[in-house]
């Protein structure tokens, strides 16, 4: 730790010392002036914390922090901020009375308020009807689901409420501070609307009790005498009128005296409790003495109480039968002979008890539901009824009818409001003594109590009350009594008045709570248009919020039906509860550091279950109400998001955003995006001036116009300096960028870096911009302005470095030119063209840009034209057709034009311009100037060079080429152009290459002194008299420019001319530009050249072809010249012919065969095929036949090779299939056709000599030594090639030792045979060929060498004679033994190695060796492998078994094609004009060579002795 106190105790402070030379003791406070020393000392006196004096100014000490926390204000966060703002505006207010500390406990503060809010109108007015309609079982399920939902919500709410100090404000503050202002506002509004509609429901319940059960005579719209829809409409109108009156009265009460409402709350609660106790007392009484509530039934139909006076058709009065009121209701007169209703006459009238009692067993009848359609009559189950199905229903107004169509989901929606109110305790959190303790205990206890009551009521109602009475919603069958009141004890009026007062109290509570909730939301300021409702009276009462609440409540009153209003408020409450559960689940799963609830009995799974239940109940109640409620919440959410969400409350949604962003970034890291998902992720590089303002604001306009790509946008700039000194400037620049991005409506990020120089800062932005997988893939930078001026030279160099760096990073580079002329976002083009000059393919970037631009309103009406350039050998008509087809598949509408660029002579202007550039580069290299001097010299050299050009070029040439120096895109001041490339970017035509000139002689510069040393003096520049000594023998002013640079300059000027001509009227020109040189020095590493990589293998194979095969084939005594010379002739011809044929199939690009060392190696392999086949007909053919044979065999081999490698895709590193098997069976096919019967028993000249065997063994040694190069030449460089060399050497060694052993064993005399040494020793090189680069282990290579040698030895001994005698195959050199049998063994070994190859052995390199087993394009595994092995190409995704099958197919197809080709070639060779030798002159050089006279002398000295065959 460094001490920041300076050593100035002796008064030796410098001019900047803060003690002004005074001793440090007199100024004990760091960084303080003397004037403030006394104040500071008083302020910190006694603190004993001088070490932290500076920190105390900005960070509080722990003691003051603890004091602040202890004095925490229970005001809601929004209200507190609102009051502070008002205090600041209105000044200090008179001191208020001290607020009394909250003293409410769990019982009075939470439990009883929750009980009062939960028990409500539904229990008294609809519970019995719900049990009757849904049955005990169905109703119990409904109650259980709803109570479980509220219990789970209470658990989640308890966890949130105990996570820190609970602010006053209840559920809105819990949700908003947990899920953020957007969700908080949306759910707060939903909770407010639910509470408001709950008030409407309570008022409707109150009016229903008043008009139906207490004073029916008070109805304004009389119902008596009305039936059906008319009676229903009259009832609803009464509800509307009285509801509006009651609402107005309640609103007035709340406005005038809310304190009286709170005082009456206990009275209303007492009414509720007494009513419930009366119900339980009535249930107990039914077990002892059931009350008498008779119900009259006609048949099984329930009759209205007002339709009869006696439950009988007739009565006996004084022995006289008299009809009753009931008779008169169904008949047309009092007479017993009157015409009556058919159903009335067919069925009897019975009277049953409406409340049979809990012991009656009626529970079994009421167990299941009985859902009714609207207008259906209430019928008793199990009672007989005589009904004629064909007769119409009459006198239906005499029966009790269903007023609505009922179904399960309707019951859920109507019932759910009876379990709401669980937030009452949390809403009073500001009045609680210990909210963290009281809220969980009180709320859960209240829900447990109410749930027990509800569930027991469901069972008890079903066990005590008759089903038809339960289904009688308004008690029309029991003299208009409230059904639940008929059960109560001691009187039904206890329930009637108790429920009436409880509904009044609940309505007042709703009208009291809803405006305060709206006021809290308004004061938070998250919904701008609601801010007016945050104001109220001087005492804080929400006047305006009360008016709005009353207005919304009136909507529910106008609906007028309790059954219709209940599902509405169910939606809003369910949504609120759903988000409470979501808040708890998210906080738990995100494990945010501040999530530490004291309530421990929660779990995220319970919260998710509660959330799922809420969502399910929403759609169960009413799917269309649910969609409307969610739509309202969504609209509020989006409104807050766009207009008002300026709060940061540390909410969980913020945590979700962070977690989701982290997860998404980690997913993006898994691999590059698929082509379909590619989009421009743009890094915009801008520069700022001294005031940190952006110099190119139109760059951001263009970025906005490209935003249809919906990709990442980073706007970056660099500030020169150090981080400590220039941090403020960087912050200012960042603010400037943000402001400009907001103005241009660019959604993205700003990034400012501070660096010692702007060049490094820009480089840092390119390197580190973005995060993880979300990185830029495109860089946009404007074309440097005035780059030709010396003062802007550094800007030009920075631009060039950006080009190079983006090239290295494989980034696309967008370079808008004349950016100041680009349109702003407010401009519109009504017509015009966007021209695309598509010169080289860039992956589709050039096509994507105009598409994105045309999505923007600025460019929408511009049409797209695409120009492409055709060269001399291109078919421009076909190119245009292909381009139109290509655009059709890309779904791009554009005009197409193909521009033909004819070759023309390079102009003198181009030549001189290139020369000037190279002279300047070379001079500056040798001048050893400082940076500033070099800039000045550049300008002076440029001026001199321009003068030289003007002197040397005629006037007409100057007018023809008006482009200025170095411009690679035509300057168009009124239009725009953009250079695009991906991944190769923009480059000025400039090169530093000063290699030996090869161009035509340039116009002479001033003569240089003799001797090669020249001096150059510039008398114009500021460094007058500076002398430059050129290198010896290099005349700078007579140097010749590099021919490549001349061609590049020529192309640039030609393109400029064509673009200006064709796109003169275009609004925007997009074109590819060439990339910079791959290395900045324009020099190559010699070791990267193919000469150093492949030429050693080429030379080794050359030795094998010309020396190895040549000497080996010279084993015949009289055919030494023919063996060696014809091998020389055939090999030379075959190599040249193979270069052309193989080049056509494999190395043909752009109509040209590209030649390199690899081509020569492949051609030598084809030559080896011909020479092996040559061995089968050695000594029996003429030179012309051999050339024709080579002429025909090379194309057949090239086609076979191309087909097998392209379609079968095999592994054959050592050529066992394509070289050895093909050559063997081709040669056998030829010799089969050229069969000579006279040679079958041997020939006098078919023998060897001592000297010829020595020469042949020399050929064997050449082949043996260089065979590892043959097998490894085309394998992958590195480990694969290393393995190929080792395995080949081991196989050859094994076959050599085995050959010597077997040769001695199989010889009767136990001696060695030279034919075995010459041929069998090479078998190991062939046997390991197919698996030479695989991991087969040295032991396997050794075993393969032994097996190949054994097969070859036995083939020479037994198989060759057998083939000659039985199959007419005269294999002169035994190629079937050395190449056929061993090739088949090699293929078998290769297939086994492929089957056993797996990643456990090979690791990721498995897919380098077996490239076709690599995953296909788009496979995620390929992306993982490419991270381990950069450059790994996609394969075919084959399994080992599939690859082995393709190997087998290649073996059989190669043998078949080669044998057929050999047979056909044999027939061609039999033609007489090819001069085949006669049988007598076979194996003899004399017909073809001038031989010495004694060349056959050894033949005359010794007897002829046939030797065993030898092979190549």
UniProtKB/TrEMBL annotation:
Its main location: membrane. Keywords: Cell membrane, Glycoprotein, Ion transport, Membrane, Phosphoprotein, Potassium, Potassium transport, Symport, Transmembrane, Transmembrane helix, Transport. It catalyses: K(+)(in) + chloride(in) = K(+)(out) + chloride(out). GO terms for molecular function: ammonium channel activity; potassium:chloride symporter activity. Residues 1-52, 76-99, 938-1024 are annotated as: Disordered. Residues 994-1015 have a biased composition (Low complexity). The gene is slc12a5b. SUPFAM superfamilies: Ammonium transporter (SSF111352). This is Solute carrier family 12 member 5b isoform X2. It comes from Lates calcarifer. Residues 110-283, 399-683 form the Amino acid permease/ SLC12A domain. Residues 15-36, 979-993 have a biased composition (Polar residues). Residues 79-93 have a biased composition (Basic and acidic residues). GO terms for biological process: cell volume homeostasis; chemical synaptic transmission; chloride ion homeostasis; potassium ion homeostasis; potassium ion import across plasma membrane. The chain crosses the membrane at residues 104-125, 137-160, 172-193, 200-221, 241-258, 265-284, 399-423, 444-470, 544-562, 568-589, 601-626, 1097-1119, 1125-1145, 1157-1178, 1184-1205, 1217-1235, 1255-1274, 1286-1306, 1339-1359, 1380-1397, 1444-1469. Functions as an ammonia transporter. May play a role in the elimination of ammonia in the gill. Belongs to the SLC12A transporter family. K/Cl co-transporter subfamily. GO terms for cellular component: plasma membrane; synapse. InterPro entries: AA-permease/SLC12A_dom, Ammonium/urea_transptr, NH4_transpt_AmtB-like_dom, RhesusRHD, SLC12_C, SLC12A_fam. Pfam families: AA_permease, Ammonium_transp, SLC12. It is found in: Cell membrane. Residues 1088-1471 form the Ammonium transporter AmtB-like domain. Residues 697-813, 830-959 form the SLC12A transporter C-terminal domain. It is a multi-pass membrane protein.
């Amino acid at each position: 730790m460094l001490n920041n106190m300076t050593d100035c105790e002796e008064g030796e402070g410098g001019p900047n010392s803060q003690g002004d030379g005074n001793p440090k003791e007199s100024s004990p406070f760091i960084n303080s002036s003397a004037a403030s020393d006394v104040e500071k000392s008083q302020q910190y006196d006694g603190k004993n914390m001088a070490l932290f004096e500076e920190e105390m100014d900005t960070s509080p000490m722990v003691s003051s922090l603890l004091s602040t926390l202890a004095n925490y204000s229970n005001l809601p966060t929004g209200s507190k901020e609102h009051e502070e703002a008002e205090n600041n505006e209105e000044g200090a207010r008179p001191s208020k009375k001290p607020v009394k500390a909250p003293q409410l406990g769990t019982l009075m503060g939470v439990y009883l308020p929750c009980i009062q809010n939960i028990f409500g109108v539904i229990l008294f007015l609809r519970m019995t009807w719900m049990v009757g309609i849904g049955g005990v079982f169905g109703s119990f399920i409904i109650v259980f689901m709803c109570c479980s939902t509220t219990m789970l919500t209470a658990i989640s709410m308890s966890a949130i409420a105990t996570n820190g100090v609970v602010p006053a404000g209840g559920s809105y503050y819990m949700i908003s501070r947990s899920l953020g202002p957007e969700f908080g506002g949306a759910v707060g509004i939903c909770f407010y609307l639910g509470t408001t509609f709950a008030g409407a429901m309570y008022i409707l319940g109150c009016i229903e009790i008043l008009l139906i059960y207490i004073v029916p005579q008070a109805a304004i719209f009389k119902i008596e005498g009305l039936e059906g829809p008319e009676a229903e409409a009259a009832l609803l109108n009464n509800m509307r009128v009285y509801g509006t009156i009651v609402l107005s009265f309640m609103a007035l009460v709340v406005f005038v005296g809310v304190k009286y409402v709170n005082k009456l709350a206990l009275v209303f609660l007492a009414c509720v409790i007494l009513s419930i106790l009366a119900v339980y007392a009535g249930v107990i009484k039914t077990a002892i003495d059931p009350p008498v509530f008779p119900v009259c039934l006609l048949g099984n139909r329930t009759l209205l109480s007002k339709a009869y006076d006696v439950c009988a058709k007739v009565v006996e009065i004084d022995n006289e039968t008299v009809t009753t009121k009931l008779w008169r209701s169904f008949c047309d007169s009092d007479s017993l002979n009157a015409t009556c209703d058919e159903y009335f006459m067919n069925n009897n009238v019975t009277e049953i008890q409406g409340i049979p009692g809990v012991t009656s067993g009626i529970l079994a009848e009421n167990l299941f539901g009985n859902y009714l359609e609207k207008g259906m009559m209430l019928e008793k189950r199990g009672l007989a009824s005589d009904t004629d199905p064909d007769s119409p229903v009459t006198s239906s107004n005499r029966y009790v009818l269903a007023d609505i169509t009922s179904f399960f989901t309707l019951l859920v929606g109507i019932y759910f409001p009876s379990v709401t109110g669980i937030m009452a305790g949390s809403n009073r959190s500001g009045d609680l003594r210990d909210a963290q303790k009281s809220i969980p205990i009180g709320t859960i206890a209240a829900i447990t109590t109410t749930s027990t009551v509800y569930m027991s009521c469901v069972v008890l109602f079903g066990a005590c009350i008759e089903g038809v009475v339960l289904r009688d919603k308004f008690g029309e069958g029991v003299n208009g009594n409230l059904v639940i009141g008929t059960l109560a004890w001691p009187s039904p009026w206890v329930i009637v008045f108790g429920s009436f007062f409880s509904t009044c109290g609940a309505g007042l509570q709703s009208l009291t709570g809803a405006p305060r909730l709206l006021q809290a939301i308004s004061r938070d300021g998250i919904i701008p248009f609601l801010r007016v409702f945050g104001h109220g009276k001087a005492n804080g009462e929400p006047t305006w919020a009360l008016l709005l609440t009353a207005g919304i409540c009136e909507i529910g009153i106008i609906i007028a039906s309790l059954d219709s209003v209940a599902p509405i408020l169910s939606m809003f409450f369910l949504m609120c509860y759903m988000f409470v559960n979501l808040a708890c689940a998210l906080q738990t799963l995100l494990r945010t550091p501040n999530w530490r609830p004291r309530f421990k009995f929660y779990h995220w799974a319970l919260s998710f279950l509660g959330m799922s239940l809420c969502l399910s109940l929403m759609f169960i109640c009413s799917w269309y109400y649910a969609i409307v409620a969610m739509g309202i919440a969504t609209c509020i959410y989006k409104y807050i998001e766009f207009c008002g969400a300026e709060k940061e409350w540390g909410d969980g949604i913020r945590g979700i955003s962070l977690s989701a962003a982290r997860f998404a970034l980690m997913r993006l890291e898994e691999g590059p995006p698929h082509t379909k998902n590619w989009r421009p992720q743009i890094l915009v590089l801008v520069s700022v001036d001294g005031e940190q303002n952006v110099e190119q604001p139109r760059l951001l306009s263009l970025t906005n116009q490209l935003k249809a790509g919906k990709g990442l946008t980073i706007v970056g700039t660099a500030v020169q300096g150090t981080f400590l000194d220039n941090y403020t400037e960087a912050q200012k620049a960042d603010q400037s960028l943000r402001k400009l991005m907001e103005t241009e409506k660019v959604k993205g990020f700003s990034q400012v870096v501070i660096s010692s120089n702007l060049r490094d800062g820009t480089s840092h932005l390119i390197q580190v911009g973005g995060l993880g997988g979300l990185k830029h893939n495109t860089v946009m930078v404007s074309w440097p302005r005035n780059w030709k001026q010396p003062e802007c030279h550094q800007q030009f160099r920075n631009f060039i470095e950006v080009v190079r760096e983006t090239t290295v990073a494989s980034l696309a580079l967008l370079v808008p030119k004349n950016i100041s002329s680009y349109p702003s976002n407010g401009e519109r083009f009504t017509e015009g063209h966007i021209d695309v000059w598509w010169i080289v393919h860039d992956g589709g970037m050039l096509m994507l840009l105009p598409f994105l631009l045309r999505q923007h309103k600025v460019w929408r009406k511009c049409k797209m034209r695409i120009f492409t350039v055709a060269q001399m050998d291109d078919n421009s008509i076909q190119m245009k057709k292909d381009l139109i087809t290509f655009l059709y598949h890309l779904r791009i509408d554009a005009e197409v034009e193909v521009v033909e660029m004819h070759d023309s002579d390079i102009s003198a202007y181009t030549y001189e311009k290139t020369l000037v550039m190279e002279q300047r580069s070379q001079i500056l290299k040798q001048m050893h100037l400082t940076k500033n001097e070099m800039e000045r010299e550049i300008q002076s050299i440029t001026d001199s060079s321009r003068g030289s050009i003007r002197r040397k070029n005629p006037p007409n040439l100057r007018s023809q080429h008006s482009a200025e120096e170095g411009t690679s895109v035509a300057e168009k001041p009124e239009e725009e152009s953009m250079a695009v490339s991906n991944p190769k970017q923009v480059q000025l035509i400039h090169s530093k290459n000063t290699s030996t000139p090869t161009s035509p002689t340039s116009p002479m510069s001033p003569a240089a002194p003799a001797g090669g040393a020249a001096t150059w003096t510039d008398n114009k520049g500021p460094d007058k008299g500076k002398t430059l000594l050129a290198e010896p023998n290099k005349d700078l002013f007579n140097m010749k420019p590099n021919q490549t640079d001349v061609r590049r300059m020529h192309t640039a000027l030609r393109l400029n001319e064509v673009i200006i001509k064709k796109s003169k009227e275009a609004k925007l020109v997009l074109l590819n530009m060439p990339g910079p040189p791959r290395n900045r020095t324009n020099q190559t590493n010699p070791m990267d050249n193919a000469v150093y990589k492949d030429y050693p293998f080429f030379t080794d194979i050359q030795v094998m072809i010309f020396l190895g095969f040549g000497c080996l084939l010279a084993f015949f005594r009289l055919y030494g010249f023919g063996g060696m010379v014809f091998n020389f002739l055939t090999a030379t011809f075959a190599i040249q012919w193979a270069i052309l044929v193989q080049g056509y199939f494999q190395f043909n690009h752009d109509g040209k065969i590209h030649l390199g060392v690899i081509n020569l190696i492949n051609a030598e392999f084809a030559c080896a095929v011909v020479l092996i086949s040559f061995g089968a007909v050695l000594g029996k053919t003429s030179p012309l036949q051999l050339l024709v044979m080579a002429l025909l065999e090379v194309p057949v081999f090239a086609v076979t090779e191309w087909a097998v490698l392209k379609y079968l895709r095999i592994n054959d590193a050592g050529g066992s299939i394509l070289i050895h098997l093909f050559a063997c069976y081709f040669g056998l096919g030829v010799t089969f056709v050229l069969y000579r019967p006279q040679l079958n028993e041997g020939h006098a000249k078919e023998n060897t000599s001592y000297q010829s065997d020595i020469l042949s063994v020399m050929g064997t040694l050449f082949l043996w030594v260089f065979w590892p190069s043959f097998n490894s030449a085309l394998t992958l460089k590195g480990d694969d090639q290393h393995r190929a060399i080792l395995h080949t050497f081991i196989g050859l060694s094994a076959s050599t030792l085995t050959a010597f052993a077997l040769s001695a064993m199989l010889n009767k005399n136990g001696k060695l045979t030279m034919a075995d040494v010459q041929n069998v020793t090479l078998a190991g090189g062939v046997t390991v060929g197919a698996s030479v680069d695989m991991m087969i282990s040295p032991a396997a290579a050794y075993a393969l060498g032994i097996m190949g040698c054994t097969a070859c030895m036995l083939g020479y001994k037994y198989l060759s004679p057998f083939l000659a005698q039985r199959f007419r195959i005269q294999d002169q050199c035994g190629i079937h033994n050395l190449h056929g049998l061993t090739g088949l063994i090699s293929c078998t070994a290769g297939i086994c190695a492929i089957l056993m190859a797996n990643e456990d052995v090979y690791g990721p390199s498995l897919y380098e060796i077996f490239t076709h087993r690599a995953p296909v394009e788009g496979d995620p595994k390929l992306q993982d492998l490419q991270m381990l092995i950069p450059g790994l190409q996609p394969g075919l995704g084959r399994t080992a078994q599939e690859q082995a099958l393709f190997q087998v197919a290649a073996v059989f197809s190669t043998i078949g094609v080669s044998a057929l080709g050999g047979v056909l070639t044999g027939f061609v060779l039999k033609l007489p004009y090819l001069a085949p030798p006669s049988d007598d002159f076979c194996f003899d050089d004399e017909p073809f060579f001038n031989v010495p006279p004694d060349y056959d002398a050894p033949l005359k000295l010794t007897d002829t002795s046939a030797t065993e065959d030898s092979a190549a």
